[in-house]
Here is the input.
Amino acid sequence: MEYICFQCKKNVDPEQVDKRIRCPFCGSKIILKKITNIERKVKAL
Ligand SMILES: [Zn+2]
Here is the structure.
């Protein structure tokens, strides 16, 4: 399972999510599971 940050759209290491649910890059606490629909959205942007 991969995760992506809702704010900065960077891939987040699952281990980081296990320890603390926040993005290591921007500190956002909103982490999304990376699924096909999300990938399509990101590409569209
Ligand atoms: Zn982030």
User: Anything to note?
Assistant: Residues 5, 7-8, 10, 23, 25-26, 28 surround zinc ion (CB under 6 Å). The radius of gyration is 10 Å. Residues 8 and 44 are 15 Å apart (CA to CA). The longest strand covers residues 3-5.
